[in-house]
Amino acid sequence: MSVRFFDTRRRALVDFVPMTPGEVRMYTCGPTIYGLAHIGNFRTFMFEDLLRRYLKYRGFKVTQVMNITDIDDKTIKGCNAKGIPLDEYTQPFRTAFFEDLDVLGIERAEHYPSATHHIAEMVEITQKLLESGHAYKADDGSIYFRIATFPRYGALSHMNLAELKVGARVNSDEYEKDAVSDFALWKAWDPQDGTVFWDTPLGRGRPGWHVECSAMSMKYLGQTFDIHTGGVDNIFPHHENEIAQSEASTGVPFVNHWLHAEHLIVEGRRMAKSLGNFYTLRDLTGRGIPAVAVRYLLLSTHYRQQLNFTFEGLEAARNAIGRLRDFRQRLTEVTGEGAGHPDFAELITQSRTGFEDSLDDDLNASGGLGVLFEFLREANRRMDAGTVDHQDAAQALRFLDSLDSVLGVIKDQTKSDSSDAEIEQLIRDRENARATKQWARSDEIRAELAAKGVILEDTPGGTRWKRKL
Ligand SMILES: [Zn+2]
Asked: Which structural domains are found in the chain, ordered by start?
């Protein structure tokens, strides 16, 4: 079976066919660094992390590019409001973005190009489009893409241009479908831009947002590449415009597979600052919610379904992770000698196939998690019955770890102030204190461990421990 994705342009599930066998080149629209990314942004980034991790699990060599939008209407407005240079304004948000990626266990892409470092490439595309008549300079000195010269305009978002009232032109980076118009490739300097401008062969000004992604994707991935992703709100106008600019300037198809993640709502309502339900990752971790629970919740709804982000869902995610981690721990403690049971090996094989069938089917992570929990229940039942030996458990652990290379929720990836060795030393000290009836000392160590977020469980076989979720 091959991997299948729902392609936005073809509106169908299609087999994923890479241009080069065994390799994937993909572009994922990145953050605009004028503020902290919110959980709606992270829903899309998490979907892209799942996509990347699963393609790697399937043996593909992945080259992923995620741009950093450090110049657009919003960053310019932000830096001018503060009266500071653009890079000084964006830097803290750039740093915070990468910190958040790490906290959520999102794997790093191969390239994170910044728009401000690729002005020359954007100018070059714009010049080509001017020369070929796909673009024109307006009276204000700005340069616009003439959508009437690109008959396929609208094919991604399935708009029928003939039925739309097409406006003359639009200068802002973001606009709605009812404002479909010629859009800005290059914006001539305006006093409102303050100190943000570049002097180029196109004149003094700055690029439009859309051309940034065409320039950076093609620079790192070539004129045609395998996968382009984003949130559904990127389909129009952003990705529509990327296709028009790129294909009109190169004459070849831009992207083979377009994948888009649906919106996220919070407690059943649109997320908005005015509704008081707008959350950054830090808002949640600041409330003591483990980032891995956020990760799990974002992964567990299919990326093409609207995700309802709730605190109840976070609690359920936390419990689910706890069960998976307890299960993994239990497997490490299986001691019985033996050569392994063929029916246990068969259970693993079936579960692996079930997991892969789900993920192959347009990244159905919720289906994959269902298979994993079915495996957990059955393996626990067999451990209760004493029919699992050390050999079986070792195989099960390898299986769990390979699934976790896709999910990233079972192994504890949180950075802790104390290493495992330090914690184990404290546990030995406590056991010694108990053996010599120094109860006060024993309680003291237990409290110290609790303060480190370590939970102890005294069993006949000794003290078990785990980090609190
Ligand atoms: Zn983009």
From this structure: 4-261 (3.40.50.620), 288-407 (1.10.730.10), 420-467 (no CATH)
